[in-house]
Write a structure and sequence with these properties.
Layout: E1 2-6, H1 19-27, E2 33-37, H2 40-43, H3 47-60, E3 63-67, H4 81-101, E4 105-107, H5 126-150, E5 153-157, H6 170-180, E6 185-190, H7 191-197, H8 201-208, E7 212-217, H9 233-242, E8 248-251, H10 259-264, H11 277-295
Parallel strand pairs: 1-2, 1-8, 2-3, 3-4, 4-5, 5-6, 6-7, 7-8
Helix pairs in contact: 1-3, 4-5, 5-6, 6-8, 8-9
């Protein structure tokens, strides 16, 4: 088990086109993994950029992980086959970029849908959900077949009902993976999302079991993990150890009221006193140490 950080905690300080700076900052938190978007240069398979990122990961002893950002207008759930195909090709390019920089997985809702989903004016019926889920699963299957050639795993994220409707629970996630039927597709299990939808968090992690390919953690209010009565961190750590989980436990916190990131997460307040970059890195440093204490008992 490794412990790492997600680019989302950086907020306004994250530059998706400057991966090396992000990695250097992540290293200051004591992270062993760092999750970020593929830059435009990576998606274009720019050899110089690929080399810079690989060298930075080696120098900093950080394992890279990619999260998928689906471009506007693309959606694997769409009834339009051309939109679905364009979305599929985008995720395939991301898988290729992952392999080129030495990342073993791509993660997130963007691997099968859009995030955040906007359905305020889309009255979804049970029939709609079944049909759209089927389309999405077919697209992910096509991605996964190609991703196997790159040696890359796809971890589809279970999201709470306010952010998506395709996969809201562990049971729905397992059913979705069964539809895809590829050995390199697993689940991204996020304690924040499961705290909205599951009755028992350790039991939910246990049901996901060997299908867990990636883990996100924050408190239910999106703070960096710390001692509260709301999430039983030691019990979750025990379940992961019993599953022989060897992936990353990644903090994806939202610490400041700013910009598109906090808007999409519906964060309307600062969550730490010092929201500077140094303040965030310090909070992540202490959060990672706390998780190691709780998960590696």
């Amino acid at each position: 088990m490794k412990f790492g950080v997600h680019k989302g905690t950086w907020g306004k300080y994250y530059n998706p086109q400057d991966t090396v700076t992000f990695l250097e900052q992540a290293a200051r938190t004591g992270a062993e993994t760092a999750e970020f978007n593929a830059s435009d240069a990576m998606l274009a398979h720019d050899a110089a950029e690929i080399r810079r990122v690989r060298e930075a990961c080696d120098r900093l002893s950080i394992e890279p992980l990619l999260t998928v950002a689906m471009p506007a207008g693309l959606d694997m759930r769409s009834p339009d086959k051309y939109i679905r195909e364009a979305a599929t090709q985008h995720v395939i390019r991301t898988c290729q970029s992952a392999a080129e920089i030495g990342a073993r997985s791509i993660n997130g809702a963007g691997s099968y849908s859009t995030w955040p989903s906007r359905y305020d004016f889309d009255m979804i019926t049970p029939e709609d959900k079944i049909e759209r889920t089927k389309r999405s699963a077919e697209c992910v299957h096509n991605v996964a077949v190609k991703a196997q050639e790159y040696g890359v795993r796809i971890n589809v994220e279970i999201l709470n009902r306010f952010e998506n409707y395709i996969i809201n629970t562990v049971d729905e996630g397992l059913a979705f993976v069964r539809q895809i039927d590829c050995p390199n597709v697993g689940l991204l299990v996020d304690a924040f999302h499961l705290s909205h939808e599951e009755d028992d968090l350790p039991d939910a992690f246990a049901r996901a079991g060997k299908m867990i390919g990636h883990v996100h953690v924050t408190e239910p209010n999106r703070k960096v993990p710390y001692h509260t009565a709301r999430i039983p961190w030691p019990e979750i750590g025990r379940v992961l150890r019993e599953c022989d989980y060897e992936g990353s436990v990644t903090i994806e916190a939202v610490l400041a009221f700013e910009g598109a990131g906090s808007y999409n997460m519906r964060m309307w307040r600062d969550q730490i006193e010092d929201t500077s970059l140094d303040g965030r890195l310090d909070a992540l440093y202490h959060g990672l140490n706390y998780l190691r204490e709780q998960f590696l008992q």
